[in-house]
Design goal:
With 329 residues, this protein is an alpha/beta fold. It has 12 helices and 9 strands. 36% of the residues lie in helices and 15% in strands. It is globular, with a radius of gyration of 19 Å.
Length: 329
């Protein structure tokens, strides 16, 4: 998928010209830059596009929503509009440049599979991981970061099954955990050792005997939890200002509607009231960011395809500033 943009700055190439292969096409100096100092676009609640009005209520649904379950299909007609955060599944996001995925996993009564959830059930986890693995097989210098954020209805048995699934699906593509992250560059991962996946697992269930899973502390991921744009950008600014210097860092550039806001705008949708509403100011905010130590690293957004993937192109091209800074010295 080729996306020709207009982001040439002071002789620096447009890094987003080919989103499907943007990491592979980075200049050598950026491939030698620690991943924690690159700007990387990600998606929030990554695999919710399979949510439909036929989806069942998931275990992460708020109690207030569960109390309305007697409304049946009528409830879900409205809920779909506020639960679905993405239009595309894994492969279509990957060819549009997304390299970080936010996964919320739930169990399902009477079913051995594990599922993506966001108030309603979406796709089976295994199908999502298979799409990612297939893409990596044919894009050997691209890297993804998988962030298993939340687990609903899990016992240790479910954790064991999910961890086995991850290991079986990605195998030698998984980068082993190391608390020293400055050595982790694209060149180190894909050229020297052929690693392609960093897998964050935010549960104590992975504390022992899981050397291929990265703990939460490696990639702090603070949540703004607001529907106010003013508060959001203050929160993001303070977060980057105080981010740990030697770790990865995830910036959640999203608006999160509380229950009262959803009911007030019941006939609208998350896409209209939050994602589109945020788009212009987010562009301005990203333009003023820089990668590098103390700067922007991973950023996540809803509906990554808006305006022909403008958000993804903007984040990828923030890395131009690393090239410009090197040219000045």
């Amino acid at each position: 998928m080729n996306n020709v943009g207009s982001y040439h700055v002071d002789g620096v190439p447009d890094l987003s010209e080919d989103l499907e292969n943007w990491m592979s096409r980075l200049p050598h100096e950026l491939k030698q830059t620690p991943i924690i100092y690159l700007a990387i676009p990600g998606s929030h609640d990554s695999f919710t596009s399979k949510i439909t009005s036929d989806s069942e209520l998931a275990p992460d649904a708020e109690d207030s929503i569960k109390k309305l379950s007697f409304l049946g299909s009528l409830l879900k007609v409205f809920l779909v509009k506020w639960s679905r955060t993405q239009t595309y599944m894994a492969h279509d996001q990957l060819i549009r440049g997304i390299r970080y995925f936010d996964l919320r996993i739930g169990t399902r009564s009477g079913n051995q599979d594990l599922f993506i959830v966001h108030a309603l059930y979406s796709a089976a986890v295994q199908s999502c991981l298979d799409e990612i693995s297939a893409f990596l097989d044919t894009h050997t210098q691209e890297v993804v970061i998988l962030d298993f954020q939340h687990f609903y209805g899990f016992t240790q048995n479910e954790h064991d099954r999910l961890m086995q699934m991850i290991n079986k699906t990605f195998g030698t593509k998984l980068l082993p955990y190391n608390q020293h992250m400055n050595y982790v560059t694209l060149e180190y991962m894909t050229i020297q050792y052929r690693y392609q996946v960093i897998c964050i697992y935010r549960s104590d269930a992975a504390r022992f005997g899981q050397p291929l899973l990265w703990p939460s502390r490696s990639f702090p991921n603070p949540w703004p939890n607001t529907v106010s744009k003013t508060y959001l950008y203050e929160y993001l600014h303070n977060g980057l200002k105080n981010r740990p210097a030697k770790l990865g860092y995830i910036t959640q550039c999203i608006l999160t509607p509380p229950g009262w806001y959803i009911f007030k705008n019941l006939y609208s949708s998350l896409k209209k009231k939050c994602a589109i509403k945020l788009e212009e100011s987010r562009s301005n905010w990203i333009e003023n960011q820089s990668p590098g130590e103390g700067g922007m690293n991973i950023i996540i957004a809803d509906f990554i395809e808006l305006s022909d993937c403008k958000y993804v192109k903007e984040v990828v091209n923030v890395n131009q500033k690393l090239i410009l800074n090197n040219k000045r010295y």
